[in-house]
Amino acid sequence: MTVTIVGSQLGDEGKGGIVDLYGDDVDVVARYQGGDNAGHTVVHEGEEYKLSLVPSGAIRGKVGVLGNGCVVNPRTLFDEIDTLQNRGLDPDVRVAERAHVILPFHRVLDGIEEEVKSETDDEVGTTGRGIGPTYEDKAGRRGVRVGDLLDPDVLRERLEYVVPQKRAVVEDVYGLDVADLDDPDALDVDALYEEFREFGRRFEAEEMTVNAGAFLTEAMENGQNVMFEGAQGTIIDIDHGNYPYVTSSNPTAGGAAVGTGVSPGVVGGGEVVGIVKGYLTRVGSGPLPTELGGVVGDTPGYDEQGEGENEDLAHYIREEGGEYGTVTGRPRRVGWLDMPMLRHATRVSGFTGLAINHLDVLAGLDEVKVGHTYTLDGEELRSMPPRTEQWADCEANLRRFEGWAEFDPATVASEGYEALPENARTYVEYIEDELDTPAYAIGVGPGRGETIVRESPF
Ligand code: IMP
Question: Which CATH superfamily is domain 101-203 in?
Answer without folding.
Answer: Adenylosuccinate Synthetase, subunit A, domain 2 (1.10.300.10)
